[in-house]
Amino acid sequence: MSYLRKLNKAYAQLSKAKNFDDLLRTSVKSIQSTLGFDRAGILLFDAETNEQVGTWGIDATGKLRKEHGLRYPITDDLITLQSNEVIRLVRNKSLNDLGEVQGVGWHVQAVIFSGDDLFGWLFVDNLVKGKDITKEEYEVLETFSTVLGQLIIRTKIEDTLLEALDSLATHETRTSDALSQIQQLKAQIVGSQNMVKLGEKLSGLVPMSTRYIGNLANFVSLLSPSQFDASNLDLLDSAKTSANRLSRIFKFVDARVHEATDNDQQQLATSVVEDYWKTQFLPMFRNTPHELTIQSSQPDQVINIPLI
Question: Are residue 71 and residue 136 in the same domain, yes or no?
Answer without folding.
Answer: yes
